[in-house]
Fold each of these.
Amino acid sequence: MLNETTIRIFLVDDDEIDAMSFERALRKSGLNFLLTHCNDANKAMDEIHKVDYDCVFLDYQLPGFDGLALLRKFKEAGITAPIAVMTSQGDEKIAVEMMKAGAFDYFPKVEVNPENMLKIVRAGMRLREMEIKKLQAESALKENNTKLNAILESTKALVFSIDSNLNYTTFNTIYKNIVCNLFGTEPILGLKAADSFTFEANRKLISDCFQRVLNGEHLSITEEFGDPDKKSNYYDLLFNPIVGEDGKINGVVVYGQDITERKKVEWEILESKIEAERTAKAKSEFLSNMSHEIRTPMNAIIGLSELLLKENLTDKQHENMKSIKYSADNLLVIINDILDFSKIESGKVEFENINFDIFLKIQEIRKTFIFKAEEKGIALKFRVDDKIPQFVVGDPFRLNQILLNLLSNAVKFTKEGTVSLLVSLVAGKGENVTLKFDIIDTGIGIPKDKLASVFESYTQAYTDITRRFGGTGLGLAITRQLVTMQGGQINLDSEIGKGTTFSVQLDFVKGVVEKESSAEELIAELLEKRDFDGMRVLLVEDNQMNQFVANQVLELWNIKVDFADDGLQAVNLLKENDYALVLMDLQMPVMSGYEATAYIRDRTNRLRNPEIPIIALTADAFPETKKKVMESGMNDFVTKPLEQNDLYSKIKQHCLKTVKA
Ligand code: ATP
Ligand code: MG
């Protein structure tokens, strides 16, 4: 009966009797078999290919063909069935030869009996089964490799792997081509991967990465590969360990991409960014320098108009003079804004921490707007929550600037109704107080779609209205920066035709109560006592106009002024004369104010009074300038245009002290 379990056996034996006893033994063994018998070696060569035999038995002695030769022929022909060899007598040597040639068993014919046949056939079958499994595994592996290769070759990335001896185990064509192009070498499976990298730096890096990944790291690097003297190629490489079935790392797989193009784009972006930043900085510096230059003549105009206004003018002249003064003041505000803005843009802003009377500050701010509001017929409402501590620590100048900006907008954009400032206490934990300033107007309002953009520099909500109202569109940009740089918040709510509310929240620290006479009281006192009568002051200033303006002011107080056009002249005068005070401009030809101060303070230079009070005259009021002035050894500073009250109190503070001392 032939079925799936039938074992197909092929017997090559020229001895008919032996063949019969072979068949008999098989039959008695109980095996389900089908025997094909062939008595000629040549015929057997044909026959063996016709059926896929499970087991083959060869007689060693065949006429004209020994069993060994036939065995070799079968093996050469690719016969995979297990082959056993039988002989008439046992011979060790032949046995060894047979086994070497691929026989799985060798036995003398006397041992042909049912029991042995069963054993031998079963052993052969087992062998066959193993052989089949091996073949299947091999073909599966081959198929897998084909698939893997297809994957490796279908990616645009480079892929290669190495074993724990750092030898190549795979690589794709892309990798091969890259290696050929960059290094002039060809990767070879089974050879050291690092040897492909002919440039020392690359080789070191790659060997180092292999080691680290074999130790368990996952790496990702971006590096330049190839000849360092030529144009470089950049690659992103990912290194991952290959973990074997035993859980140990037995290799490294590397996946990578050429990112040279992307790098180029990145560089271009970076370059244009640097260029843009440089342009912005240049613009900002230009603005800063320009506004600085413009301020000097502006100071003269403002100072002189102030003086002229005090003269006996006709009504018409007085009116015109007031207009000049008003325009000049406005122009100065714009110039200051630009200077401020460029400082903010270049990150040069520092904030003060000063103890100040916030009620007084708000009072002063109110005074600034009374006239303008009255002129426009608008009501001005200021309310400060009395829970707020009177003294706080913060930057009063910046607070002033913020509120002036917002209030002048409110007044500017309101035709009728009210402009209010409400100051309230939001939170007060321990030493900290958060204050909220609401600036509310009943003006034209801001369209919804412009709410965000009004904070941008040089942006105005209505371009047509701008001409009517004036301004540069910098106010809110500066204001927002000043608020946020101090850690505060600014919000905006507006409705067309109804009005606008700006809310600013700022943090302060609770201050200490100071008893101080107001500036007005101070001046009244000074004027009464005429403390400066006959005082001799050295004014160091290169600008003739500024000299003139300052002199006019000082003369009011009966001060006798000597002039020096630069630091060097000043130093020489100080060697020969006694002065109560030096008023020192900072930027001057020949010797600057800073240099002159250093020279005066240096005792080895033997000036008459190395400790003479020196007050700087500066065009800007920034804390960093102030810091520099104080660090250089000067005692104080006043800003141009000269604020009479300020100058008065500072002269008093520094001179009367030394006069008495
Ligand atoms: P600058 O303040 O530089 O002199 P400006 O007042 O036009 O000029 P910003 O203060 O920055 O500039 O204000 C920007 C724009 O926002 C204004 O031009 C105006 O259109 C709008 N705006 C600001 N405040 C108000 C307000 N209270 N009511 C209506 N519109 C306002
Ligand atoms: Mg404004």
Amino acid sequence: MKFAVTTLSPLIEESVSISLFEGTFEERTRKISDAGYDGVELLVRDPSKLNLQQILFTIRKYSLTVAAIGSGLQSSMEGLTLSASESSQRQKAIQRARELISLGAQLGTKIVTIGSFRGKSGDLTLLTDTLASLAKDAEGFSIILAIEPLNRYESSLINTAKEAVNVINAIGSPNVGLLLDTFHMNIEEASWSETIKETKSSLVHVHLGDSNRLAPGLGHIDFETVLTSLAKIGYSGWVSSEHLALPNPDKAGIFGAQTIRPILNQIQCL
Ligand code: LER
Ligand code: MN
């Protein structure tokens, strides 16, 4: 398993609750590397504004890789959702998803997340069709769209791992998989080990956040059980810390790494 953390891509001035580490993009990248992460999950707004060469240069300078493109800012900051009922709005979101897929390929990751970008409510059949058509774009770029169940208070579309797997199976593409986020799982799932075992064949990405959405170790989720369950199914993808930047973005990022890195090291020694 490889270990990443969510942080903003360059040129976003607004503060974002789940962007870890403070400073310029280069300063954040250096701190992420120093804290013991292997990669970054980049939170992106408008991909056309990004200087990709500069991002790649900085990330490589600190021996990191891009774990995933996080799409959550599309709904929270750009007002775009893939389940928008109005066709022109939905088309704008679909176009943006295509840009994120292309961005992911150019930055060398396989994963584009589909979490809150899908919207808070809407028609699941329409969303499934939209994701099926995006899967064809993803195929051309060797990208996997990682569908993330969100807890019931954030969306009425796909709350559980089982619901996500139903959508993934209905689409039937190797370019669509499952993203499990421990914060959402803590609300919606009955068992860490059973859910992870049952979703083995679909699982492509994992978000780590504690029960209160603080850094791992600041709530009551047993991350040893979570990570051991992932190891037992042979999961070799990314576990990406995505949690509130509290008490501040640096402390939260460092604390999360201090909780997770020793468990990963121990598991990898077994
Ligand atoms: C939102 O709660 C979340 O977990 C993000 O990954 C969604 O884009
Ligand atoms: Mn998440």
